[in-house]
Specification:
Number of domains: 1
Order of helices and strands: HEEHHHHEEEEHHHHHHHHH
Distance between the termini: 64 Å
Structural class: mainly alpha
Mean pLDDT: 86
Low-confidence stretches: none
Length: 356
């Protein structure tokens, strides 16, 4: 088996090429099965019928890459079981997403796949077991108590619960963000590249995680040219796989949650604002509406392309800043990102109302 550094370039190329080649094939399959997102107005701002099931292309690509990387998971950085758990989680999201795109499942059934996928990660041995102390040296343990079930499964509390909640929040943050052409695919590519840069740095040096992150970024870069109305959307599987993959990368790379949160700050803050707003209005937090930041930007008069570029730019800038900061600095950075997102949302809201 060749050293991992020699496998880096071929694996990244494979991820991009596999996504590029698979996407048109999957698109033809979706059209044949009539899994098409029809323009209906409201939140569906596209004007051309567009194939769904894009997540089948990105998901299969990620599974192929993880299978290629499995021999390198020898316990020094990651165990094979953790990689297999990641693959199982992706497979669950593919299955659940394809069903939802085809049959438009209600929210109570949609959430089953992300929950099962998150449980697969915990069962495979990955988890957030500690968080860095932002006020001094050391870290706070999140393993307060453990239960052993047979010889295989160990349940850690509250670490496993926090891990599942983290994965669900990141998964749904990206799912809710998926409203403009290329937005989520580009955000995932940026997030994957940032995590790869951190994992590949001398301070951490986790080459397997870095390659995995670059490959996931490559899978979404390969899909990006097709990700437009009239061609193909990520669909339920694709949007959930995007957020889930970045969430898992943050966990298996040593719970680098602050860096991942900075790269994903916009969707994380946006989901918080939207959910709070829906609860205040007395509607289900899972019920879609046009109160997301990207819709606010469109209502304020910004074009789709410029809105996507702006959100990509914010993610890239804050992610790069997070790479240069220690834990305490990252916390202040996240507060700054919350303030920026609130400000942009408020200004967009005022401009949209002024146009009415």
């Amino acid at each position: 088996m060749a050293p991992l550094e020699y496998a880096l370039t071929p694996i990244v190329i494979i991820s991009i090429a596999c996504s590029v080649l698979l996407t048109p094939v999957v698109r033809k399959l979706a059209v044949r099965k009539n899994v098409i997102d029809q323009p209906k107005g409201g939140r569906k701002i596209h004007v051309q019928p567009t194939a769904l099931w894009g997540g089948l292309a990105t998901g299969i690509t990620i599974l192929v890459v993880l299978a290629l990387l499995l021999p390198y998971a020898q316990g020094t950085e990651l165990r094979a079981g953790q990689v297999i758990g990641f693959m199982i989680g992706i497979a669950i999201l593919i299955a659940g997403g394809l069903l939802d795109d085809a049959y438009d499942l209600p929210p109570r059934l949609q959430i089953l796949a992300p929950i099962l996928a998150s449980i697969a990660i915990v069962v495979s041995g990955s988890g957030i077991v500690q968080v860095t102390n932002p006020f001094g040296p050391g870290a706070f343990s999140l393993v307060w108590t453990q239960w052993n079930i047979g010889q295989i499964l160990t349940i850690s509390f509250p670490a496993d619960l926090i891990t599942i909640l983290w994965l669900l929040v990141v998964t749904y943050a990206m799912k809710f963000l998926d409203g403009l052409d290329g937005l989520v695919a580009g955000m995932t590519a940026i997030g994957g590249a940032l995590i790869a840069a951190l994992a590949g740095s001398q301070a951490y040096f986790q080459p397997l995680v870095a390659v995995m992150a670059l490959a996931i970024a490559g899978a979404h870069l390969g899909f990006l040219p097709y990700n437009r109305q009239g061609s193909m959307f990520l669909g339920e599987a694709g949007s959930t796989i995007a957020g889930f993959s970045l969430g898992v990368l943050a966990v298996i790379s040593g719970a680098k949650l602050a860096t991942a949160a900075a790269a994903l700050g916009v969707p994380l803050v946006d989901i918080g604002l939207v959910v709070i707003g829906r609860l205040v209005r007395g509607v289900s937090p899972f019920r879609g509406d046009a109160t997301h930041l990207h819709f606010r930007l469109l209502q304020a008069g910004m074009s789709q392309r410029n809105a996507v570029r702006a959100l990509w730019g914010i993610a890239l800038v804050f992610g790069l800043l997070a790479l240069t900061l220690q834990t305490q600095g990252k916390i202040f950075l996240l507060f700054g990102l919350v303030f920026l997102t609130l400000t942009i949302s408020f200004i967009a809201y005022l401009r949209a109302n002024r146009k009415v």
